[in-house]
Amino acid sequence: MAKLTIDDLHLSYGSNHILKGISATFAQGEIVALLGRSGSGKTTLLRSIAGLEEPSKGTITIGNSPVFDGAAGLNVPSEKRGLGLVFQSYALWPHKTVFENVAYGLRLRNVPSAEITQRVAAVLEGVGLGHLGDRYPHQMSGGQQQRVALARALVYNPPVILLDEPLSNLDAKLREEARIWIRSLIKKMNLTAVFVTHDQVEAMAIADRIVLLDGGRIVQAGTPQQLYTEPVSLFASEFMGTNNQIKSRVQDKRGGYTQIELSGFALWGKDRGGKAVGEDATGVIRLEQVAVVAGEGENCIQATLETSLYLGSQWEHVFRCGDLSLRTFGGPLAAGSHWLHLPPEQLWVF
Amino acid sequence: MNRATRIAVIVAMAIAVLAPIGLVVYQSFLDGPFFQPKTAFTLSAYDFVLDDEDFFDALWNSAVIAFGMTAIAVPVGAILAFLMVRTDLPGRRWIEPVILVPMFVSSVVLAFGFVVSLGPAGIVSLWVKSWLGTIPWYLYSKWMLIVIAGLTHVPHVFLYTSSGLRSLGSDVEEAARMTGAGPLRVALTVSLPMVMPNILYAAVLVFFLGFELFGLPLVLGDPEGILVLATYLYKLTNKLGTPSYQLMAVVVVSIICIALPLVALQRHLLRTANRYVSVKGKASAQKPVTIGFWRWPAVALIVCWLAFTVVVPISGLILRAFVSSWGEGVQLSQVLTLDHFRELMHFPNLVRGIVNTLLIASVGGALSVGVYTVLNLAAHRWQSGWTRLMDYLVLLPRAMPGLVAGLAIFWVFLFTPFLSPMRQTMIAIWVAYTLVWLAYGMRLVSGALLQIGPELEEAGRVVGASAGRVSRDLTLPLIKVGLISSWLLIFITFMREYSTGVYLLSPGTEVIGSLLVSLWGSGAVDLVTALSTVNIAMIGCGLLLMSLFGKRSHG
């Protein structure tokens, strides 16, 4: 069942169009990442769902009740939507204790005070801060503040919880831990969650589904695997991973495959851009898909090893083939010339 | 606040601001007081004022004094700011709080201080005369007035320049030192040019205050008949025997016409200055510039300035309040007395004045801060034509000097039937004070509001609080400290205010400031100095409270 539905949402500040027709549905119990560069409209979309921005057109429906309808002039204020929102800066109220920060949403709902005490204690326990209710926000670390912000958004059981770059203020180590516990907490509580991020690794790690935005439009939506292995555009493929790019011209086409050329070597790749023979095209292949092989073969090129970087768990090799440099991962390699295999089903031609 | 309440608040403010100005403009086109039954529209009042030589004399004097004091205050204030903020000047921590004193003491009180210290029979004059046989200055000349006005307005320039310098990273100065510039060169070619927008703003402010000047020329210009616009207005009250309302209205209109462009210019400059400051953020580590030998002449310069503008007038005034008389051959220790203060207590109106001043500053100040807060909340996080209108409305009272605003409010209370019973109560005084300091108070409160990030309030909305509850539960508690310190500043401001109450002075509405102005006219020096001393003591208590509060809220 769709918990949150957005249909043809537009938003602009003056002549500056931020959202240009966004449609998406979010199912019960699903974690969805809104992924995009800064300025792609992802935060604006999240704030529109929360009721903090006013779109110009379109509809937003939570469960069965519409909360925004541009045509009908309906715009339910934030406080009546009953959603939970975790701010990027956490936005904890500095004059209230952790307990009071979390309890505020319940007090507004006239929950009896005995029940408030019990529910706040339970949710703080859930985020691992059971003993810190009397502290003030400034007495806590960044990671703890983030947990309080999450507890504050969860305590009144919102139908959908929204998170704005929830991990961006944590340092690298903490961020990796937080990815795990946020996902498991949301899954355990069977919540519907929408979170904004600009980090594709974070999006893939936490989300069940990713909505990739660019320039106020949805580029692609799907599971993390779909976005990583079947990007629909050059932009999507570049955004989701690190690639080698081969600028070339279409030589031949056959059965869903396109042939391009790199310094005299013919390469077959999956036809994704639909370019005709003779047109300029770009071949894209993920770094980890390029393999060093023993000798000549189909879809192989010869390249000179330029340099190798030791990364700890593996080596990153930089090869040169004509005026193009290609990167790949692997074990230690001797200097000199090597053969590289670019599997046709992993080489995408746009 | 919801939209309807916001608009209602802004409309109420518009009425409060526009009614006095509208009434004054209306009055200026009549041939008699507006409350008389038979009045007709005419330009005769304009003809009269524009034909009056005294008016153009006053206008010319105002311009000369404004230029002169700007020329003195800006360089002195800017250098002072550089020395205090950016150098290793000895004793900076002790000097800094004293620099602002002339801003906190009312300028009539300072003027009295100059008269009793440096006037022809002043204590310092007599002392110098006993050494030199003559007094090498004449206090009541125009030049002396310009010098005193200039030096007492140094703190304004200091305040704005130093705040700019504080946000400047010291790396730019160190870079200049490394390329071989001496400290003075650094100040003149690097530090001060970088805060030029702030200095420019302060210059326009001082020039504007020069046009508004009332207390200093009233006391120091009177003996030689030097009139400025404000004192011309004050004297005009009785020029034709009967109160000539239409003539006063014309002068008020001309003062507003001069002040309004200056106020608009200040607003424009303040915006550019703020933009300028935010560009060069890196102010984390400030290291003072070492000025070596130059610090001794620098300290000497500052001490001389402080002695002239603070120590001499205030100590002279306080001393005068405690002696029965002085003159050549009088031993001060033999004439010490508390008689003036005892005498003070025998005048019920003076006692009422002291009580009223305390009330208007404390209770009235708190109410005013409440009004400023409501007005700020009405415009808070709301972009619309209404808030822009409010931005411009705030400027209007700014263009009315206290004397003028007091007069306009007096007329409004006279004119409006349901207000007239309150004309002779402290309510009229409070309305006038709140209006005169509207722009200042609004800025104090909005400064506090700017400190809180929008997401703190948005978080409240999202968890389910209505706009009103967000204001009550989140916004107001978050700016509590800012509101208390705003109140303390308004407390001191209302305590020292003297010109606004002048036209509203009547039995029951006495405040120290307006009493001082009227007592000075009657020549009661003993009472004036005693009352001034009381006023200084009250302001001193306010300052003490403020520094205690500042320490507590920072620690």
TrEMBL record, chain A:
GO cellular component terms attached to this protein's record: membrane
Residue ranges of every copy of the ABC transporter domain listed in the record: 4-240
Matching InterPro entries: AAA+_ATPase, ABC_SmlMolc_Importer, ABC_transporter-like_ATP-bd, ABC_transporter-like_CS, ABC_transpr_FbpC, Mo/tungstate-bd_C_term_dom, P-loop_NTPase
GO biological process: quaternary ammonium group transport
GO molecular function per UniProt: ABC-type ferric iron transporter activity; ATP binding; ATP hydrolysis activity
Keyword match Metal-binding: no
Top-level lineage group: Bacteria
Protein's UniProt name: ABC transporter ATP-binding protein
Organism encoding this protein: Azospirillum griseum
Automatic annotation (TrEMBL), chain B:
GO biological process: transmembrane transport
Record keyword tRNA-binding present: no
Localization in the cell: Cell inner membrane; Cell membrane
The keyword Transport is assigned to this record: yes
Domain ABC transmembrane type-1 residue range list: 59-266, 354-549
GO CC annotation, single: plasma membrane
Highest taxon, organism lineage: Bacteria
Pfam families: BPD_transp_1
Keyword vocabulary terms for this entry: Cell inner membrane, Cell membrane, Membrane, Transmembrane, Transmembrane helix, Transport
InterPro entries the record matches: MetI-like (IPR000515), MetI-like_sf (IPR035906)
Mode of membrane association: Multi-pass membrane protein
Transmembrane segments: 7-29, 58-85, 97-123, 143-165, 186-208, 246-265, 298-323, 350-375, 395-415, 427-454, 474-495, 527-549
Family indicated by similarity: Belongs to the binding-protein-dependent transport system permease family.
Protein name: Iron ABC transporter permease
